[in-house]
């Protein structure tokens, strides 16, 4: 999940994700043929394909893309049986596709003895999603899935891929709540937002919005490019402020400002998400909260006082339910789940 730096990765900007405890596991074996047999246990579905043609099933295209990218780079990829199990929530902005891609590539690396480091795994996973799943994504999700841990934040410069682990603010823990609104990146305005950012950068005469340091520089742009660019510039600044080592209260203020920017300038929130975030903002155990992921539904993340996240999540979900919505706490995981 991403704590700060939303929609900045495809603008060569800065991001601050961390890993969730849920996992995706892929088992792979050679089957002696040229066909790939993919069983997705969570979906209870199977797909069969070869490297000569993309499978019709959308879930299989992520796997096909990883295998195809390896083959395109000269790896001899034999036919395989692949079994996927995952408890990473799908369609809620928690990088389930990136987890799948990274797990597939790690399994194939192990099976074939490939010399791919974890950064190269992330790069191949991103390429697979762009070229074969139809999502013109940045590299944040794949880098986080490949390199991040659950007990710290990964500060990543998506242009240079320079990175370092950053401790969480002292005395805090994270809460993730699913809004109950599933969304698909490929079917949303995600690709449109990326195109708008590219148009804004071109109009400003820079390679990407990462190169704009002064938010006043975007004021000359026409709408909606002005607001799109303003979000990216201010969001980068929020990440850089957060990694200076701020306290929990300041980090929460940055999260709240991020959500407002995603809602008003980037326009990727929806009313139920805003309502859930407002409930989290109002809870005494919450320092700050925002949508996480690309938006248009999905999940919210909150920074809470240590030991109080589960209760804050239950309280917010109960009040959210009273508004006619159906949410659920994803992190921390309940001991009875």
Descriptive overview:
This protein is α+β, with helices and mostly antiparallel strands. The chain folds into 2 domains: 20-147, Ribosomal Protein S5, domain 2 (2-Layer Sandwich); 169-331, Alpha-Beta Plaits, CATH 3.30.70.890. Helices cover 39% and strands 19% of the residues. It is built from 9 helices and 12 strands. It has helices at 58-72, 96-112, 118-132, 140-147, 190-204, 225-242, 248-264, 271-282, 309-322, and strands at 2-4, 14-17, 24-30, 36-40, 45-49, 80-86, 153-157, 163-166, 172-178, 286-292, 299-305, 328-331. Strands 1-2-7-8 form a 4-stranded antiparallel beta sheet. Strand 4 (36-40) and strand 5 form a beta hairpin. Helix 1 (58-72) packs across helix 3. The longest helix is centred in the C-terminal third of the chain and has 18 residues, at 225-242. The protein is globular. The protein starts with a strand and ends in a 6-residue tail after the last strand. The model has no long low-confidence stretch (mean pLDDT 95).
